Amino acid sequence: MPTIHYLTTADAVATAAAHFATLPRIGIDLEFDDMRHRYGRHLALIQVFDGQEAYLIDPLPLPNMAADLEPLFAVLRDPAVAKVFHSCKSDILLLDEVFSVNCLNIVDTSLQFTLLAAEDNNISLGRLIQAELGFEVDKGEQKSNWLKRPLTEAQQEYAANDVLFLFELTDRLSARLEELGRADWAAQENLALEAVRYGRDDPRPWSRNAAKYKISSSEMPVFRELYMLRDAVARQLDRPPYHVLSNDRLAELTRQPIETPLQLRTANGLHPELKRSPYAEQLLAIGTTDLEPDAPLGPEHRKFPFRRRLNGSAATRADAREALLNTLKTHLTTDQGATMANMVLSNRLIAEIIEQGAVGALRPWQQQLLRESAEKHGEDYGQIAEPF
């Protein structure tokens, strides 16, 4: 096992970051808590591999986390140092959301593996290590509490394993992509990750909750108010919302609101705080008040699907584009396999191509595959190349 350095001070972070800044690449991973043990999303650990040794950077003891981690963040922003991740989307979203850090020069081993178009294209790091390197790593600590201190030896070993094999994996996958002529595809996809940003402006966060599918549209105002009340209590307690009220109970209370103090006293599945002032009164008010429906979204948030805005001859043209794209997807499946066909013409991408054209919706490598397949099967690529 390589040496593992456990860093807990700003000086140690600055020294390590100065070392990382001299390297052509680092392997990196984050552990964070996403509404599992506390309210919100909290960075718990940063793991870095320099090619020889692993560094576990513990942000929790740092007096000023953002400022004390800035030397490391400067390396993440530095395009001269490649950052090798596995399945980095959630990591780079957290960096942007919490610290406004935009990571540059990303190499994602999960993305590289996907471009090989194997049937198992959504692969975990543990399974990728097993498939490529031929041995198992213990993933038992995956769901442990990363905010609890001290970290156990098992947690530290698990965390180090998340970065120790990234160079070996990316080198193997890069060689295979090169053999297939797909190295440039990976470069295009990795570059696109630099543009990933955290969405900070959600006017209706309750509409993303899975429990909403269990209720009718007429019940949505009650659901909205219960969701917001649950969120306020969770924030005050610094607990995940499900500790206050489970999603199932949220849906039940929407369908059968609490209307009397007796019902509230005997109700189960509620955090005790919901039965105390001022939340108890708010909960009863939700059950006994005529609530307004959701206010209409402003024009900046109204995003009707493109197809719903069309009628007449325009709708007919859009239908023709969709039919051609579905035909091309069948041809791509024959030529390249189902995995690759879905990477070029998923349902989401088909909808985007109908509106924006292949030129606007697809990366150059995807356009190339689609054009080649159209030409091979005598289809008119020009029909879907340009914006609608």
Automatic annotation (TrEMBL):
InterPro entries named among the record's database cross-references: 3'-5'_exonuclease_dom, HRDC-like_sf, HRDC_dom, HRDC_dom_sf, RNase_D-like, RNaseH-like_sf, RNaseH_sf
Entries under CDD domains matching the protein: RNaseD_exo (cd06142)
Domain of life of the organism encoding this protein: Bacteria
UniProt xrefs under Pfam families: DNA_pol_A_exo1, HRDC
Record domain HRDC: where: 216-297
Identification of the protein by name: Ribonuclease D
Organism whose genome encodes this protein: Hymenobacter frigidus
Gene: rnd
